[in-house]
Automatic annotation (TrEMBL):
Pathway linked to the protein: Carbohydrate degradation; 2-deoxy-D-ribose 1-phosphate degradation; D-glyceraldehyde 3-phosphate and acetaldehyde from 2-deoxy-alpha-D-ribose 1-phosphate: step 2/2
Gene3D superfamilies, per the entry: Aldolase class I
Organism: Rhodohalobacter mucosus
Any one biological process term the GO annotation gives: deoxyribonucleotide catabolic process
UniProt cross-references to PANTHER family, sorted A to Z: DEOXYRIBOSE-PHOSPHATE ALDOLASE
Reactions it catalyzes: 2-deoxy-D-ribose 5-phosphate = D-glyceraldehyde 3-phosphate + acetaldehyde
Gene: deoC
Protein name: Deoxyribose-phosphate aldolase
EC number: 4.1.2.4
InterPro entries: Aldolase_TIM (IPR013785), DeoC (IPR011343), DeoC/FbaB/LacD_aldolase (IPR002915)
Length: 302
């Protein structure tokens, strides 16, 4: 039973923007040795949530994406598979069947993704349907309008209800940081999500710009660190959108290591929501192992 006290969310924790930006800049200057770089690239690959969230999604497209999730690059069968695939609720059953026995999770967006503009009853039904179809993880979006009005209890209660509807599925709470306007709001939304029961907090839907940034991610990582110190409960982190290169992925891993420690450097606690990142990671892994860059045409686009 939880014994910690839920804080007063009307209180704002001030964020030193200059300090955040300077810390990110310092950490980005870290050099990584060749042997550690290959290990980091493989780790990043294993942390990807391979995603398709388009109105034209079909069963065939989802099955093809699942094939890549299982075997990212056939000429190197020793590479790790990705952490999860993420689809709309009506595609969960297709993905679940395609990934049976692989250990790859099926995630589903929920709660009127990406806007979150629907009655709570609809959001709850959306979540229950995805779980009934076999979703291992639910990616929900918070009600940004209510948050920005200062209706923090509404946001808290909604997350808590969605969490209850998830059953055994893990809940990833999307803050849509590009709409929250300030670091202080990002910190407050992170705290609300975690105290309401989030298993992960996630920057973005990928549908709004700006999406994930390293400074915003650092603010969220520090919120996770402080929540862990207060409650003893670990929370996962998922930056999503705008992370396209292996170099950026390694920089994010450094942020995690330096802020939260090695315990968070696993797919159980850290994910990338960036399907376009996959092929750049594969290109860099091939380069590290063979000394040769393969062209992008050698990798499937999913």
């Amino acid at each position: 039973m939880d014994t910690y006290t839920t804080p007063d969310f009307s209180r704002t924790i001030p964020i030193d923007k200059v300090g955040v930006d300077e810390r990110v800049a310092r950490l980005n200057k870290r050099s990584i040795k060749k042997e550690s770089k290959l290990q980091g690239l493989k780790l990043a690959l294993s942390m990807i949530d391979l995603t398709t969230l388009e109105g034209k999604d079909s069963e065939g497209k989802v099955i093809q994406m699942c094939a890549k999730a299982r075997t990212p690059y056939a000429p190197m069968p020793d590479l790790p598979h990705v952490a999860a695939v993420c689809v709309y609720p009506n595609m969960v059953a297709t993905a679940k069947k395609a990934l049976k026995g692989t250990g790859i999770n099926v995630a589903s967006v929920s709660t009127a993704f990406p806007s979150g503009m629907a009655p709570r009853t609809v959001k709850l039904e959306d979540t229950r349907f995805a779980v009934e179809q076999g979703a291992d993880e639910i990616d929900m979006v918070i009600s940004r309008g209510e948050f920005l009005k200062g209706n923090y209890s509404y946001v808290f209660d909604e997350i808590a209800e969605i969490k209850d509807s998830c059953g055994s599925a893990h809940l990833k709470v999307i803050l849509e940081t590009g709409e929250l306007e300030t670091y202080e709001n990002v910190r407050k939304a992170s705290d609300i999500a975690m105290y309401a029961g989030a298993d992960f907090i996630k920057t973005s839907t990928g549908k709004i710009s700006p999406a994930a940034t390293q400074p915003v991610t650092l603010v969220m990582l520090e919120a996770i660190r402080d929540f862990y110190r207060e409650t003893g409960r670990m929370t996962g982190m998922k930056p999503a959108g705008g992370i396209r290169t292996a170099k950026q992925a390694l920089q994010y891993l450094v942020l995690v290591k330096e802020t939260l420690g090695a315990a968070w450097l696993t797919p159980e606690w850290f994910r990338f929501g960036a399907s376009s990142l996959t092929n750049d990671l594969l290109m860099q892994i091939v380069k590290q192992k063979t000394g040769i860059y393969e062209g992008r045409e050698y990798f499937s686009e999913d």
